[in-house]
Structures are given as structure tokens and as C-alpha cells.
Amino acid sequence: MKGKRPLIIGITGGTGSGKSTVCKAIMENIPEENIAVLEQDAYYKDQGHLSMEERFKTNYDHPLAFDNKLLIKHIEDLSKMKPVEKPVYDYELHTRKTDQTITVTPKDIIIVEGIMILEDEELRDRLDIKIYVDTEDDIRILRRIQRDIKERGRTVDSVIEQYLNTVKPAHDQFIEPYKKYADIIMPEGGKNEVAIDIVISKIRTQLS
Ligand SMILES: Nc1ncnc2c1ncn2[C@@H]1O[C@H](COP(=O)(O)OP(=O)(O)O)[C@@H](O)[C@H]1O
Ligand SMILES: Nc1ccn([C@@H]2O[C@H](COP(=O)(O)O)[C@@H](O)[C@H]2O)c(=O)n1
């Protein structure tokens, strides 16, 4: 890291839109020593003090479910060249792994990736480039069903119920309307080579 302030890139979009895929595509093209990611999901509030029954009732698609204060502090610390301890989230237990963190060291490029990073003004103001991955709702729910069953210990019924009760209404209230703040709207997500190349060029300019 050359000592100047890092370039902070926000990648947002609804669940299953392809945020992580875009992130991965960028990271594959930039040397590891230059780039770090803070996933907003890692900053879901710790719920270790709640029973499993209470954790099932939490709305994970409300801005209050996130500890954005900590996320903002970590962005600021990294900008001041201080390493941070990123929490590790457990989607099956719906809480942070208390015995685990990931040390993130300051890098020239910091990606902040998550569903509600544009909704919070304080967080939004810290992002130099804002990308919204725009994918149709029906594609997103199909991807979500597959992923949540394979990777997050869910059933088809639970994913559909959660989608209708909280995920979809939250998308319409807290995610989609904030698309207007994006600098780049990226249809096709990780498969949009033109848009990804533009972002990579911008990053390379910053690195040189
Ligand atoms: N453009 C795309 N075309 C086809 N499948 C995709 C595309 N983008 C993402 N996927 C797949 O959809 C799923 C969800 O993508 P992901 O990037 O994890 O979404 P998000 O991080 O927004 O929840 C993954 O299995 C991923 O491989
Ligand atoms: N305990 C939790 C925490 C979060 N979720 C869901 O994750 C979605 C955000 O992650 P993406 O990778 O899909 O962007 C969000 O829509 C929450 O509903 C969960 O189900 N359980």
C-alpha cells in the first residue's frame, strides 16, 4: 500500500443479484496484496445472547439487523492504515462466530459488498464508486433457493416464506429505491465483462 487513501468501491444489489460474483471477478484480476473485501453480511449484529427461537424471528432484511457502525469504523481504520478484525458470520446459527475473526490489513482498494450499503447515508458517503448489480426478481429468488439450501442449511419452504414475508418487501423499500445513488448499474452481474473491465481499469489507474 502506497500510503494514500484507499479507493473504496461499494457493490450492492438484491439478494442473489450477483454481488459476490462481481466481487470475485474483480479480485481475480487484481493482485491480492492490493485489494480487500468487507462483506456487509459479516457485520450482521451478534445474536449470541438470544435463543435460536428468538433468532428465527429476527428480520435479516431490515437495516437495523446490521452493525453498520462497526463496518464504518473498519472502513475508517483501514483508511488510516490500521488493520481490522472482520467478524465471521454463521448463517445456520444466525449469529457471529465469537471465537473467530479475519484480520484485514490496509490495502489500496477496499470493496464493501452487501444488500444495504446505499441505504445508510453515513456508509454511502464513504464509498468512492457505487455499483448496483441489477438482476430480475425471478432470477434472484431461484438463485437464492438453490444457494440457501446448498450453503445455508435452509429448506425450500423456509426460503419461500422468508422471501415473501421480509426479503421481497425489504428489497422494494430499502434496496431498489437506492439504486439512484449508484454510479454504475450493472445488468448481468458477473457476466457483464464490459462493466467489469471498466471497473478493473479504474482500479489499475488508482494503483499506478
Ligand atoms: N450472471 C450470472 N449468470 C448466471 N449465474 C450467476 C450470475 N451471477 C451469479 N450467478 C450465480 O448466482 C448465485 C448467486 O450469486 P451471488 O454472486 O452469490 O449473489 P449475491 O452475492 O448477490 O447474493 C451463485 O450461485 C452464482 O454463481
Ligand atoms: N441469519 C441470516 C442472515 C442473513 N440472511 C439473508 O441473507 C441475505 C443477504 O445475503 P446475500 O448474500 O443474499 O446478499 C438477506 O436477504 C437475508 O435475508 C438470512 O437468511 N439469515
UniProtKB/TrEMBL annotation:
The keyword Cytoplasm applies. GO terms for cellular component: cytoplasm. This is Uridine kinase. Its EC number is 2.7.1.48. GO terms for biological process: CTP salvage; UMP salvage. ATP binds at residues 13-20. The gene is udk. It is found in: Cytoplasm. Residues 8-194 form the Phosphoribulokinase/uridine kinase domain. It catalyses: uridine + ATP = UMP + ADP + H(+); cytidine + ATP = CMP + ADP + H(+). Gene3D superfamilies: P-loop containing nucleotide triphosphate hydrolases (3.40.50.300). It is an enzyme of class 2 (transferase). Keywords: ATP-binding, Cytoplasm, Kinase, Nucleotide-binding, Transferase.
